[in-house]
Every structure is written in C-alpha cells, then in structure tokens.
C-alpha cells in the first residue's frame, strides 16, 4: 500500500512537472488520504480561491467552457471557472452551485485514471504517427504531454455531451518531421499537442458544432480545404472556426 501510494505521488510529481506548476507537490495531502491515484484535492474550492489545486481543477473542467472561450488554466478560481464548474455539474447531474466540493471531486475521480488521463482517452491515442512518442515537436516533451492532457479532458467533455459516443482520434501530437510528412500546416497545433483530428460518428459536422462549447476555439471541418474526412480541433490564442458546410 505504501509502495502504491508512493508510486502515485511519483506520478503526480511527473504530472505536476508536466503542467509546469510551481510548488504543486507540496499542496498534496498525505498519501493515506488519497482518493485517487492521480491527484487528490484536500479542500473545497470556490470563487476567490487560487493555487495549484485550482489549476488542476481547471484542466478537468476546461471542456465545459462557454462557447468559443477556453477556460484559462491560471490557478485562479474566477467567474469563468465557476461557470465551467456549473456546466460540469449540470452535465453530470450533480447539484449545481459552481463550488467544487466532495460531490464534484468525486465525479472527477470517477472520470480520471491513475495516470491522470480521462476515462475514455489514453496517451497512446495521441502519440506521433512516426513512433517518436511525444518528442520532436515544437515545444518540450513535458509541455506536449501537458497540452495533450488538456486536449483529452476537453474531448472527454465533448464525448459526454454527444451522448457518451466513442470518439476516434486519427491524429493527435505530431513531431515536426511527421507533420511535414503528412502535409500538415507549418507550425501546426499538432506539433504542440494542442490539437486532435477526429473521424467517424456521430458526424464530422456534429463533432465540429459541439466542439464550439467544449473549449476548442480552433475548429476546422467539412467545407474547409483538406478537411472532408476529419474534423480538426485545437486550442489557440484567438477563435478560428472554419467549417462552412456545418455552420
Ligand atoms: Zn488537424
């Protein structure tokens, strides 16, 4: 048990580093109290709170942003975070108060795996198609992993909103050379781990439409050149939606 708890802490350390957090590990409660192999919150969070635990929460609720306006993962529990928590609570049938307490964290624990990925996505779905894992991109491997994790949590929300339909990721992270090989845009979001291409059900347009409310402000889908067979979703600094056959 101790070994497992220590392993969990080790994982957390890696995860925390991956997110580029400052002092995150120190905020963790004793391993014995861990509710989850990935991360355990040890206080209720609401508007006005700040810290690494708020940041961890923001990563998990980022898919419940308002339309086209991603939740800032800044460690500050402002109105935008409270609104995202409310949407998360409503989406999963919890009491809706915008406060992250035991019920909300309980749902997060239920949704996350010990490696911090959400229940329905795994790291292997996002590695570069040339076998280079998460290396060789336009940012460090740890940044890529942190970005991929954030993308996964948005996709988890998208999946739930689409009626818990499985989503198929045809391309996640790409190394720069793999991106060149597949004809990706120069400096593509895929080379940072902030993008995912989806195929299949329910439909490319359905994916594109619902993504608008799931924290993706980059959407390129049907009707845009080269996007007849997948819908591209990403996170970028300002909104770019281009799916003229859908909306
Ligand atoms: Zn793409």
TrEMBL record:
Domain (Peptidase M15A C-terminal): residue spans on this chain: 143-234
Ranges for the Peptidoglycan binding-like domain? 50-106
Protein name, as recorded: Peptidase M15
Q: Which residues does UniProt assign to the signal peptide?
A: none
- One family name in Pfam for this protein: PG_binding_1
Extract the InterPro entries matched here: Peptidase_M15A_C, Peptidoglycan-bd-like, PGBD-like_sf, PGBDSf, Zn_M74/Hedgehog-like
């Amino acid at each position: 048990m101790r070994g497992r708890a220590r392993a969990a802490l080790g994982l957390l350390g890696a995860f925390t580093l991956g997110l580029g957090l400052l002092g995150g590990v120190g905020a963790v409660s004793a391993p014995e109290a861990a509710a989850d192999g990935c991360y355990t919150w040890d206080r209720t969070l609401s508007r006005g709170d700040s810290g690494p635990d708020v940041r961890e929460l923001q990563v998990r609720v980022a898919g419940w942003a308002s339309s086209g306006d991603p939740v800032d993962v800044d460690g500050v529990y402002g109105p935008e975070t409270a609104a995202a928590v409310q949407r998360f609570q409503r989406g999963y049938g919890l009491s809706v108060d915008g406060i992250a307490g035991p019920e909300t964290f309980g749902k997060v624990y239920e949704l996350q795996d010990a490696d911090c990925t959400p229940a329905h996505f795994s790291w292997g779905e996002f590695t570069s198609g040339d076998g280079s894992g998460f290396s060789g991109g336009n940012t460090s491997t740890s940044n890529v992993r942190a970005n991929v994790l954030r993308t996964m949590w948005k996709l988890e929300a998208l999946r739930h909103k689409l009626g818990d339909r499985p989503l198929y990721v045809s391309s996640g992270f790409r190394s720069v050379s793999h991106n060149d090989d597949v004809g990706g845009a120069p400096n593509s979001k895929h080379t940072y781990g902030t993008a995912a291409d989806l195929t299949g059900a329910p439909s490319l347009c359905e994916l594109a439409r619902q993504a608008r409310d799931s924290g993706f402000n980059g959407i390129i889908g049907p009707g845009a050149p080269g996007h007849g067979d997948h819908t591209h979703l990403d996170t970028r600094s300002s909104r770019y939606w281009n799916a003229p056959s859908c909306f």
